[in-house]
Structure prediction request, 776 residues.
Amino acid sequence: MNKLKKTLKITLITVLALVVLLIASVSPLTKYVIERFDKQVTGREITMDWAYVNPFTGYLHFSNLTVYEFERDSIFLAVDGLSANISMLGLFSKNYEINELRWDKPRGMVSQKRKVFNFDDLIDRFFRKKDSTGKKDPLHLSILNIRITDGEFYYREVVTPINYFIKKVNIESPGFRWDVDTIPVRFSFLSGMGSGDMKGVFSINLKEKDYTLSVLVHKFDLNIVGQYIKDLSNYGNFKALLDADFKSAGNLLDQEDVTNSGLISVSDFHFGKDSLEDFAAFKNLTFAIKEVSPKKLKYIFDSISLKQPYFKYEKYDYLDNVQTMFGKKGANLKAANEDGARFNLVIEIVKHIKTLSKNLVRSNYKLDRLAIYNGQIRYNDYSLTEKFAVELNPFTFMADSVDKTHKRVNFKLGSGIRPYGDIALNVSLNPLDSSDFDLKYRFQKLPASLFNPYLLRYTSFPLDRGTIELAGIWHVRNGQINSDNHVVVIDPRIGERSGNKNTKWLPLRLAMFFVRERGNVIDYEVPIRGNLKDPKFKLRDVLVDALENIFVKPVTTPYRLQVKNTETEIEKSLSLKWEMRSATLTSKQEKFLKRVADFLNENEQAVVIITPQRYELKEKEYILFYEAKKKYFIERSGKNVRSFDKEDSLKVEKMSAKDSLFVKYLNEKTRDPLLFTAQAKCLKLVGAQVVDSKFEMLNSERWNVFMSYFEKRGSAKQVKVAAGKNVIPYNGFSFYKIEYKGEFPEYLLKAYQKMSQLNNEAPRDKFKNDRQKIDR
Prediction:
C-alpha cells in the first residue's frame, strides 16, 4: 500500500508538473507562433506583451495586443487585453464555439481613401468567396457573450479630409450561433470631439438583412457633419447638437422598406461664414414622428416645429452668399454628387431623404401641427450703390392639421418688417391639388424711403417721405387666377437728385404727376387674371387715374400747394433733417432756426428740447465710401492730404462706389477672398476707428451749427439737449427731434389747425385714419 501510494503520488506530481509545464510552454509558444507567422496568415504584423493559454479549460488572454496596418508601421488595432473562452469539446466535433469573447480598452483606426478602406486586405484574405466547383459544409462557428469595454475608435478619410472618433465605447451581445441568423447588440459611446452620448439596441438578421434599431441620443455633437460640409463649401463654419429617441425597422437591401418612429431634434444649429457670422441658424428643430413608412405609403407626424430660425441672404456684385460658399449655381455640390468614387455623408443623407419622401404626394400623410416660432429672415443687397437691408422679425408660421383626407389645409404667416412695417398672410390650400388655393395678404406701414437704394440706382431720386401698403385676395382654381390687389402709397415726396455717377436717370417728378392723385396718394386697384403660368395684369384703373390726373390736377394746383406748404411748416417745426455726411443747413432751415430763436426771446418761459436721431448705419456707410474714394483719388491724382481741396472733394463725392477703377483699386489693396462687399473692403482699407472718429466729428459740427443761431440771439439757455439715439429713421435721414415745453409758437398752432382742416376735406379725408396711424 505504501508503495502504491508512493507511485500514485509520483504519478500525480508528474502529471501536474506536465500540465504546468505544458501551460507554461504553450503560452510563450503561442506568442512566438503568432508573432512569427503573423504576416503569412494575416498579411500584417502582430505584437503583444505576453500571452496566457490554458489548453485544458480553453481560456486564453493576450495582453497589449497590437495589429499594424498592412505593410505599414502605424497601428490598426490595439487592445489592452483580449480574452476568450473556447469550448474544447467542440474542437473534436467540428462544432467550434467560443463561449466568451472580451475586448478591454480597444483602440481602432478605420481609414478610407475614396472607395478603398484600410481593412480591405483582411476582407479579401478571409471573407471573400473563392471560386469553387465543390460544395462545402458551412462552418459551424458560434461566438457567444461578446463584450467590448471602454473602446476608442477613429475614422479618417484622406481625400475629404475627415478626422473623427468616438470614445467610451461599450458593446454587449449574446453573440451568434452558426445555425441562428439574428444577432442582437447593445451599445453606448460618447462623442470624441465635443459633447454628447449615444446608446441603443441593434438587431440584424444576417440572412434576410432585416434589422431593428432603437437609439437614444443626448446632446451629440455633429462635428463630423461639419467636416463633410467643408468638403462641399469654399469656406464656412458649422455646429449643431443632436437629440433623439428613435426607433427604426427595415431591410438593408431596400431603403424604402423601413418604418421609423420617435423624436428627432437638432439644436444650437449654426452655419455661416465663420464662428462670428451666421448665414443660417436655429435654436431647435424637432420632428415628432408617429409612423413613416415609404413602402406602406404612410407619413404620419405628430408635429414639426422650428424655434428661433435665422436666415440671411446677401447679394453681392458677383454672386451671393450661397453661391460664394457652394460655387456658382451649386458647382461644388454638383461636382461632389457626380464623383461616384467619393463619399460625402451630407450628400448621402440628402439622397436618403429624397428616397424616403418620393412617395409622399401619393401616400396617406398627416401632420397634426406645423409651426415656426420667432424667426428672423434678413435680406441684404450689396450690389447697389449703397446697401439695401430689410428683415422679417419676428417671423411666425402656423398650419393646422395637414391631412390628405381634409378638403382644405390652412396656413397662417405673420411678421414684423424691420425697420418698419408688418405682413400678414393667410392661405387655404387643397392638399390634393397645389393649383387650388385661396390667398389673402397685407403689407402695411412700409416706409417709401426703405427702397431708396433702388430708387437712387434706377432713377437718381430718393423718397424722403411716404408710406406703402399692399393688400390682396386671390382665388385660384385649377390654376386659374381671380385676384384683386390694392396698392397705396400715402404722401410720397421726392428728395433732391443724386449727383453720383453710374446711376440711371428717370424723370420721377414727371412720373409722380401722372400717378399721384390730388390728395397726395397713389391708390390703384390691380386685378390679376389668367393662370399661374401666364398671369394677366389688368391696368385699367392705373390708366384711368393717370388720364384723370392730367386734366384734374392742374385745376387743383393751389390746393395741393397749400397742403404741401402746411405739411412742410409742421414738419420743419418738429424736426430738422440733415443730409447725409453734411452739417450744412439750407436757406429755409436757417430761416426757421432764426424764427425759433426769436420766439424763445419773446417767450422767456418757453423751452425747446432737442433729441438727436442719428442714422448711424447709413451715415457711417456714406463716410466709409467717401474716405475710401478719397484715398483712391489722392493716390491716382498724385496729390496729398494738404493739397486736397473743395473741388477735389466734389469729384470724390460724385464718384460711384461701383466705379470699375475704384473697385479694382479696392481689390488690389485688400486682397482677401472672403471680403465680398465694397463696404467690407473699404472698411479694411480705411479702418473702423477713422469712420467712428469722422462720425463723432460730424455730430459735433452739426450741433455747433445748430446752436450758433440761438447763441447769437441770446436764447441758448432755453435750448435743452436730450440723449441722442441711434435709429433707422422713417424718412431715411438723420434729424433733430424738436419738442416744445411751455408756449407753442403761433405759426405751429396755425399750421396744425390748417392741416386738420385740409385732412377733413374730400381729397384727403379717405386716408385720414391711415395718416393718423403713420403719425403715431
In short: The chain has 20 helices and 32 strands. Residues 570-775 form one domain. The mean pLDDT is 86.
